[in-house]
Amino acid sequence: MTFNENPSYDETNIGMFPNIHALDVSYDTSAFEVAADLDANGQLTPRCAQQVCEHIDRDGFAIVQNFLSNEECATGMEVVQAALVDRDREHSAFASQTDIHYGRRDFCPLPTTKPVLRTFSLLARRAERVLTEYCSSLWAVLEMLTLTSYAGSSHQYLHRDPADVLCVFAALDDVSQEQGGTILATETHPYIGFHREHGGKGDLFMRLFQLQCNMRIMRYNLRKVINLWKSRKPMISSEEFYDRVFSKKIDEHQPNLYYFLIKSPNPVFNAYKFGPRTLIRLAQFGKEAAAAYRLIQTCPKKALSSSTGAISSTLGLTTDRTNRDTF
């Protein structure tokens, strides 16, 4: 599973992304990094691509540092900025609609214009030896979008991205710890035989680990919204506070007590996941599950990050060897 919290690439917002101190998160990503090594055609060399795939298969994700040059990042940033300022552009429906409504997030699907396609073609050609390891050239691109979070947005719950999808994130600017990069849980991708790990409790430990983290995230989000509402920095109106905590509007990313406890439970995290059997399992194996996985927050330097079905909360490469359908 991959845990995604989306960094802002707006320099004016640096420092506005407090870390989730309730989670034991490491910022040392050196064990998961591969330095980009390009051949004469501008593609990752066979050896470099092999190293990336080895990380993906073992850890569920890989980080390719310095994947893009400064010039290529600048060009990509221009493409993104042009899409963001387009008044007729689309707005993503999969993110927190409450955060989008109040200007806390901006998930922007990129249009299929020539500049956008040119930029993505560059990414695809450079990473071709990795992509073809998991995806057929006949399979479709699911979506192209840019993800931005601003001050006051809620942290996403630890979740697994859709099955049969290879997720690729390209950092067009260096990401700092203060901005808050994607948080990934190592070795939580559903590789063949994962359920046999940890004495046959691999699947159970993953679910317990996810619940433990999401309990802390909900508490963190709730405390964050209350503190922001009291301090008015950044400005949160009473209407926004109500929508994020008590509203009947369905939103899977808010610390909404109404939907957590009463109606239409959040499929990622809700009170119905804490049945008697789960509570007993948490008492029996909670400490072992917590020690079984590591949370890594990615702060890449203009990198490419990829993952396959790892637990996450935003910026990584994840793949599932058993399901290689789309990119």
Keywords:
alpha/beta; disordered N terminus; four-stranded mixed sheet; 327 residues; single chain; three-stranded mixed sheet; disordered C terminus
Can I get a quick summary?
Helices cover 36% and strands 12% of the residues. The protein has helices at residues 46-59, 70-84, 97-101, 114-126, 128-134, 197-200, 202-231, 238-245, 257-261, 276-292; strands at residues 2-3, 25-26, 33-35, 61-65, 105-109, 145-149, 159-160, 167-170, 183-185, 295-297, 304-307, 311-312.
Task: Describe the protein's architecture and organization.
The protein has 327 residues and is α/β, with parallel strands linked by helices. Helices cover 36% and strands 12% of the residues. It has a 4-stranded mixed beta sheet. The chain has a 3-stranded mixed beta sheet with strand order 1-12-7, with no helix packed on it. Helix 7 runs antiparallel to helix 8.
Low-confidence stretches: 1-19, 314-327
The strand line-up of the biggest sheet is 3-4-11-8
Distance between the termini: 17 Å
Helical percentage: 25-40%
Q: Give the amount of beta strand, in percent.
A: 5-15%
Class by SSE composition: alpha/beta
The biggest sheet amounts to: 4 strands, mixed
> For the CA atoms, what is the radius of gyration?
20 Å
Number of helices: 10
Quaternary structure of the protein: single chain
Give the CA-based shape.
globular
Secondary-structure element sequence?
A: EEEHEHHEHHEEEEHHHHHEEE
DSSP strand tally: 12
Instruction: Quote the average pLDDT.
Output: 78
